[in-house]
Amino acid sequence: MDDPTIREARERIDRLDAEIVSRLQARARIAVEIGATKTASRRSAYAPDRERDVIERVRALAGDGPLTDAHLAAIYRQVISACRALEREIRVGYFGPPATFTHQAALERFGESATFVPFDTIPEVFTETQLGHVDYGVVPVENSTEGAILLTLDSLVDTDVRVCSEVVLPISMQLLSRAASREEVRTVYSIPVALAQCRGWVARNLPGCEIVDAASTARAAIMAAEDRTGAAIGPALAAAEYGLNILERDIQDLAANYTRFYVIGRTASSAPTGRDKTAILFSIRDHVGALRDVADVFARRGVNMSSIQSRPSRRRAWDYIFFVELAGHEQDAVIAEALTELKALSAYLKVLGSWPVDESATLPTAPLP
């Protein structure tokens, strides 16, 4: 027989649930109205600036309650996802197969109510997004320990998509296998970047094992699922997806290990918020001090260049394209003025997009050893 105190508490929960559902339905009806207006004006259902504001407002409402701001943000991401789906179906392409870290990032940004489409390669995500076969794509752009994802940078040059927002995920690597223990493992399947993040652990704990390259962490999990003495390095999400045991958790060599992902689309959909990022790429005319002149364009205006990468242009030898992220929105007067001056200095300039900074994605500093 139920304790009367527990029974009474459950009845109060039931009443609160009924009220919550009623309020959620009211919210959804308003979302449908907004969706109809967006459709009529051909506006995107995905609005990164508005969604960031909603999440931040919810976080601020957490107060000192038992649910933390992170708990409430996770709940509201799903609420936003469901309401967005009522406006219209959102198809999201990602570097697959299912259960990769990129899949996880796509779920983080778009929630369970979107339709997710895996693609075999990063360039394919760009191509299918540009062609409109999916509304948005999610691709990795940078890892905190291994650096830039070169295929993503090259694809930004080769296509006309825009960067709409970003997702930063903590990367926790697991050893996944059909085997019952680590001692049974003879082969390790991994993508090179994942292996590099776990190289020390693998050398200490799996000496003598054969290392086999895979196209993705999920593909490594599939290969391990077909090999009784094989193991994959990948996300916990892949264990459930492919029927594997998690033999060891958190095997990455550095605790502070993060990957940043871009959300790409055919058009930009984020208005200035006062806390934004802008990504550009450009090539410069070759002369002494050329890169210094570019940096000075932003330094004189107090604009922070938060990231800079370079890649061979593939047009001629020793010609480079530079990828830069700036603090600010391309519509901000100071950024627009700087870009106008930069265009005059550059052989080629392309604005990749602007999006709101996600304050929750600030990376913590790794502790010193």
Number of strands: 15
Overall geometric form: globular
Binned strand content: 25-35%
CATH homologous superfamily of the domain at 270-363, by name? Answer: ACT domain
Summed over residues and divided by their number, the pLDDT gives a mean of 90
Written as H for each helix and E for each strand, in order along the chain, the element string is HHHEHEHEEHEEEHHEHEHEEEHEEHE
Indicate the structural class: alpha/beta
Low-pLDDT regions: 362-369
Fraction of residues in helix: 40-55%
Give the N-terminus to C-terminus distance in angstroms: 55 Å
CATH domain topology of the domain at 270-363: Alpha-Beta Plaits
Q: The biggest beta sheet, please?
A: 6 strands, mixed
The CATH class of the domain at 270-363 turns out to be Alpha Beta
Rg, nearest Å: 23 Å
Q: What is the CATH architecture term of the domain at 270-363?
A: 2-Layer Sandwich
Helical run tally: 12
